[in-house]
């Protein structure tokens, strides 16, 4: 309704804006429909153990093969879902689906959780029931949340506590890009830090990025957190990270996100 009202208002002064607004309303309806009909699929990007070269787990990434528009990017439909109140439904959809597919995949499975989903009071119960139904062990599920989600420590702490009691693991995604204070790292029960790819990009080029990376690795090490480097695109970056003691990495250098059956095959071939 609000979007429609905005649309009328815009149409008077800004026909191009009005067209975009109508387009978003249409896309929102189609996303709602896709969620109802199983129209979103998941691709999985393997996360590698840098020492052994084995697949440690995989991150589930939502994909929308739209019947007429072609693939719609998550950079478009995730923000849309967040704005239009659809993200909790989307995250639950992805969780259910990833847990259903997890048995056939190597290692743990990581799922992204928006702030709205993390704060929803029904989350722990939904997780417990979905884990039971799927038979996936809680320790095989990693929930990725961003620093933003942890920005208010007093509301985040009890949720993290309940997740810990369930036995699932928690990763901080895009670490280093938010505006969090580092103090929360001491008290929160966290398992992985996913170092944002903007730092990884600077390896071999910007000594400042390398300094930040070393700092994060050292901090994580002393707090008992495992680091995952994101967006590793070259052999040089992978080698640097391994040398500096980074445990895990993902990125196009190893593999792009792929359908679950491809990842299962890849893991079988590598033994
Ligand atoms: P993210 O969680 O940080 O996921 C990593 C993104 O980096 C993915 O983009 C992945 O395809 C991309 N990527 C992986 N390796 C490389 C690399 O070597 N180089 C570069 N340049 N990029 C790489 P994608 O799939 O487009 O997803 C974008 C974002 O959308 C994700 O960022 C995540 O925040 C969000 N997202 C995706 N699926 C879900 C979901 O089911 N729920 C929620 N709440 N968010 C999701
Ligand atoms: Mg598995
Ligand atoms: Mg992620
Ligand atoms: Mg990330």
Describe the structure.
The chain has 271 residues and is of the alpha/beta class. An eight-stranded mixed beta barrel has the order 1-2-4-5-6-7-8-9, surrounded by five helices.
Task: Using brief descriptors, characterize the structure shown.
271 residues; alpha/beta; eight-stranded mixed β-barrel; 51% helix; globular; binds ligand C2E; binds magnesium ion; Putative signaling protein
List the helices and strands and how they pair.
Elements: H1 2-13, H2 15-37, E1 41-49, E2 55-66, E3 70-72, H3 74-83, H4 87-102, E4 108-112, H5 115-119, H6 123-134, E5 141-146, H7 153-166, E6 169-175, H8 184-187, E7 192-195, H9 197-200, H10 207-223, E8 226-229, H11 235-243, E9 248-249, H12 260-270
Helix pairs in contact: 1-2, 4-6
Describe, in short, the structure shown:
Residues 24-271 form the EAL domain. The chain has 271 residues and is an alpha/beta fold.
